[in-house]
Design goal:
This protein is mainly beta. It contains three helices and twelve strands, in the order αβββββαβαββββββ.
Length: 170
């Protein structure tokens, strides 16, 4: 007898997960030849303060995945309000994603986007297979916080980009 409960369908799962608001990041790395690679992600989070660790979930089929595996490094670029075009560009699977985008090479060799709200540059600590993705856990070796960037993060919810409202209670 199989004790594994049945799974929900892909469409049902996507519909439910679209209702989970997520901050938008661009995960970047460089391939073995130094060419920049990147993708848009909302499955990114802090894991630990001591040591400083972050996690990024990356599709096994992306060129960014292959670059992270090859170089053992990646960067998280947290996007702010007004950077929807950048998020859309990096969400695609084709095209010259970095063409016309201001970027620099960080100490890890990864491309970083200076206009981002903040950047975490990481060396790979662990790669955990998880279905059609890999959970890359990185030790943060450098951070950069952009004091001049918009203070509101770019959010993805129900298939659309938005920002936090200014109001709220404490």
């Amino acid at each position: 007898m199989n004790d594994t409960p049945p799974s929900v369908g892909t469409l049902e799962f996507r519909a439910a997960m679209s209702r989970l608001a997520g901050g938008v990041s661009i995960v970047t790395s460089a391939d073995g030849d130094g060419h920049p690679r990147g993708l848009t992600a909302t499955a990114v989070c802090s894991v630990s303060l001591r040591p400083p660790l972050v996690l990024a979930s990356v599709s096994n089929h992306s060129t960014t995945h292959a670059a992270i595996e090859a170089t053992k490094s990646f960067a998280l670029n947290f996007l702010g309000r007004g950077e929807e075009e950048l998020a859309r560009r990096f969400a695609g699977s084709t095209g010259a994603k970095f063409e016309g985008v201001e970027w620099e090479t960080g100490p890890t060799g990864c491309p970083v986007i200076p206009e981002a709200l903040a950047i975490c540059e990481c060396v790979l600590e662990q790669a955990v297979p998880a279905g059609d993705h890999t959970l890359f856990v990185g030790r943060v070796i450098r951070v950069s916080v952009n004091a001049e960037a918009a203070n509101d993060p770019l959010i993805h919810f129900a298939g659309a980009y938005g920002a936090l409202s200014s109001g709220g209670s404490g």
